[in-house]
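note to self: dont lose this again. the chain is below, predicted strucutre after it. 487 aa total, dont forget to put it in the shared folder this time
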Amino acid sequence: MSRPLILILCCLVWASCNTQTKREDEAKTLFMEGVRLREQRLSEEAAECFLKGLEQLRGCEKTEKVLLLEGQLCDNLGAMYLKHGLFEDAFVQHQQALICFRQIADSMGMMNAYRNSGRAVCAQEQYTQGKQYYDSAFLIASMMNDQAMLSDLYMEMGRDYYLHTGNLAKGIENVNMALEGGLNDNDTDIAHMTLGILFYYTKDIEQAKSHLNEALRSDRPGLKMSVYQTLFAIACVEKDYRQAIQYHKLYAANLLETETEHSSEAMQRIKAEYELKAQKNELESIHRNQALRLYLIISLVVIALLVIILIVRKKISDHRLEMEQFGRQVERDQNRIHELVSDMETLIRTNDELRRNQQTLSQKELMMTQKIMARNKVMATAQALSEQISPDTLNFELSDNDWTDFVNLTDLIFDGFSQRLLQLYPKLGKWDVRICCLSKNGFSNQVISILLDTQTDSYYKRKTRIKQMKMNLGDDNRSFEEIVNAV
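---
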């Protein structure tokens, strides 16, 4: 009867593995297509592919392959969001990519995710945090000796961090190091644009114009827009207003094209559609899983019922044979129970008698200890002073033997109090221990100060010295008495 159950479980496992493999393959295909579209600057179509890829991975087991693919999809999707001005959404995607790459120890992926996170937070003017991400990416690139990434990082740190934080000299140095290290054509144009802006701010107009004109080789409207904006400012500084008007027209033309290319409305629409779709798919997945669990439960119940029927039939056939043996066994058990009950009653009576004897002994021991304590001269004097302070009670003389006897009796009553006290605070002297024993027995400050033949104020100071210097409890907010009673 277990074969149908095993067959059902095997089918479910096979279907689950087969579905995951298909979804991984589909997500990989969508990722490659998104990368191709991104290279063609079709950012909206690329973002849609990356979103579809992430949707395919939803619910898959987090294997190393899935984590790598999820990190790549998130990192590329974040770059698309960043391009269209969705900086917070971009940062979220890059951070998710960083989490995935960390789990599989992918240094290359972590380096790119750190770099892109730095770009996203710098775009939100969080330059200190951005520098930290850039520094993390730079550290990994240095360990990997990735010269291409180091050049990109030099250029981006000069553009995104040093330019905006006003460290123009450091920015120029970084961008020049990027150019020396080698950049692709597009990044070279960005580097020249950045140098042009940096030199403009340092008032080196000739250097600025030289680099800006180099940057105009680019065919990207966004880059050319920034170049024309800076050239317009330079023309105004040089009072070449005719040229300034020409630069402003070119700036406006490229601005319009850039706004069309980088519009965030379409990207926000795509993002919202896929968030809604993801919620819908999640609900459908929940319903499918519930239905599958229901079918599995029904199958298990049917199998269990069949097994129960077979077991019941066998039990009925065996029951007749067992009834006579069971009856005899019941009779023997009843006799044994009667014997056990009789023994239990005897034990209970014996236990009650022992408890009463123990209580009597405890009371006698307590009374004897109190009588012995009362005979001790220190205890008797302290009790007399507690009841009444008079010339008679003040006329006392205590020897070292009296004090030793008092400490030993206190140990007897409080289970070795002085030994435990000295283990905790070994710096305590003989008289310190006597004071602690008096406090442990509950005598007042006035009585203790009389027994010590000192003023009450002096006794307070002595307690403070004991607590701070010999117990090393100067920062403890408890009183001296609370500390002693806690031992």
